[in-house]
Task: inverse folding
């Protein structure tokens, strides 16, 4: 005498079973355990849109800042490039920005020295600027003879510039303009602006 179960009976039985299981679990103290679980801390601060510094894709990031310090970096859901997702390197950007092991000084090895020494970043930037200017001044070509005629060229062949695709378009534009103003001919960029 087998009777077939209707769809309505199956759904009613399923609902009653699930209700009984839920009641049994709450009686075992599972609800009390869930109440004791600490809530996750919500990081609050000013959110600033940024770009991941690692590769040429340019994934959007949201940097959360509080009291002048970075407290979180996550993917930007408003970015059409990555829609909030980040690769493993991009997801670890916080560790790049906030890291007690990050160098805060430049390493410098003097000519003919056998060891590296720490120097301040300002001192390193001044050294680079001074060497750039000296190299430019020593190697500047004002005129060249082309087809027997003297032409003004205003160029420097002793310095080259290599840009990167993680730098935004505006900075790349200004960088190239300043390098051309200095007379550089060898200017290359990964993004090929």
Result:
């Amino acid at each position: 005498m087998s009777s077939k179960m209707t769809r309505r009976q199956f759904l009613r039985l399923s609902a009653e079973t699930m209700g009984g299981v839920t009641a049994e679990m709450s009686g075992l103290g599972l609800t009390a355990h869930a109440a004791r679980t600490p809530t996750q801390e919500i990081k609050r601060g000013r959110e600033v849109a940024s770009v991941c510094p690692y590769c040429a894709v340019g994934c959007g990031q949201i940097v959360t800042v509080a009291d002048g310090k970075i407290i979180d970096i996550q993917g930007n859901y408003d970015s059409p490039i990555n829609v909030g997702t980040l690769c493993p390197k991009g997801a670890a950007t916080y560790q790049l920005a906030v890291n007690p092991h990050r160098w805060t000084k430049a390493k410098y090895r003097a000519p003919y020295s056998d060891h590296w020494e720490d120097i301040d970043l300002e001192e390193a930037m001044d050294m680079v600027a001074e060497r750039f200017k000296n190299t430019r001044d020593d190697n500047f070509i004002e005129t060249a003879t082309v087809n027997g005629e003297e032409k003004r060229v205003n160029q420097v062949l002793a310095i080259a510039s290599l840009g990167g695709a993680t730098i935004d378009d505006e900075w790349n534009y200004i960088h190239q303009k300043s390098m051309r103003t200095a007379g550089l001919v060898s200017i290359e960029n990964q993004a090929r602006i």
